[in-house]
Amino acid sequence: MAGSFISPEMMMYVVIPFLIFCARICDVTLGTIRVIFISKGIRHIAPLIGFFEVIIWLLAIGQIMNNLTNFVAYIAYGAGFASGTFIGMLLEEKISLGLTSIRIITKEDPKELMYYLRSHNYGVTSIDGEGATGRVKMVFTIMKRQDLHQVISIIKQFHPNAFYSIEEVKSVAEGVFPEKQPGTGVFSWVDSLRFYRKGK
Fold first, then answer.
1. In this structure, how many other beta carbons lie within 10 angstroms of the beta carbon of residue 180?
2. Burial of residue 93, with CB atoms counted within 10 A of its CB: 0-12 exposed, 13-18 middle, 19 or more buried
3. Are 22 and 80 a contacting pair, CB within 8 Å?
4. Staple 199 to which of 66, 92, 172, 173, CB 3.0 to 4.6 Å?
5. Of 171, 173, 108, 166, nearest to 141 (Cα)?
6. Alpha-carbon span 144 to 40, nearest angstrom
7. 8-58 per-position pLDDT tens digit
8. Contact 141/96 with Cβ under 8 angstroms?
9. CB distance 48 to 107 below 8 Å
């Protein structure tokens, strides 16, 4: 039928750029996740992600090479790269891979905070210190990154004026972490890869 016919102009300036855009979103998103997996020590999945990433990239760049005079394809290529980077970061934030360390410095007695964290199965260590304005207590705890916002809320509840810093942790030998109930779905599967422990 005539209504279903796609003209050469529409194919060149709409369909092909759209396919390039989608392919770039997919390969850049995969690339972002691959780099994050490597940085978190989850190296056994990264090569598989890289395989699909480069195949999709070859398909996208092949269309660019076949349509060198199509400026819309260039725009779609760049827009797909930007969108894929953004989506990759959103996915990384969603699955919250890895471990995070919080260092808390407070002038007040942190016993209640430490007791509360320990009662919720967070490992806590404290030492005495001295700051610019006098003696302080330093409290350290390491948690799964997915628990970061919850722990920050607890800190603000007990010590709203405390100074704290957050650092990424690549791996740990041992540790105390809250137990999570098993779930279903892709993010529950990835949950088993959230952190890597050495020395088991």
1. 12
2. exposed
3. yes
4. 173
5. 166
6. 12
7. 888 888 999 999 999 999 999 999 888 888 877 777 888 999 999 999 999
8. no
9. no
Taking only the tens place, the pLDDT of each residue in 83-134 is 999 998 888 777 767 788 899 998 888 999 999 999 888 889 889 888 777 8
Enumerate the β-bridge partners of residue 148: none
Instruction: Give the β-pairing of 124-131 and 134-144.
Output: antiparallel
Strands, sheet with 163-169, edge to edge from the N-terminal-most edge strand: 124-131, 134-144, 99-106, 163-169
> Which residues, 6+ apart, have CB-to-CB distance to 154 below 8 Å?
113, 116, 117
Which residues partner with 163 through β-bridges?
105
CA 5 to centroid of chain Cα atoms = 43
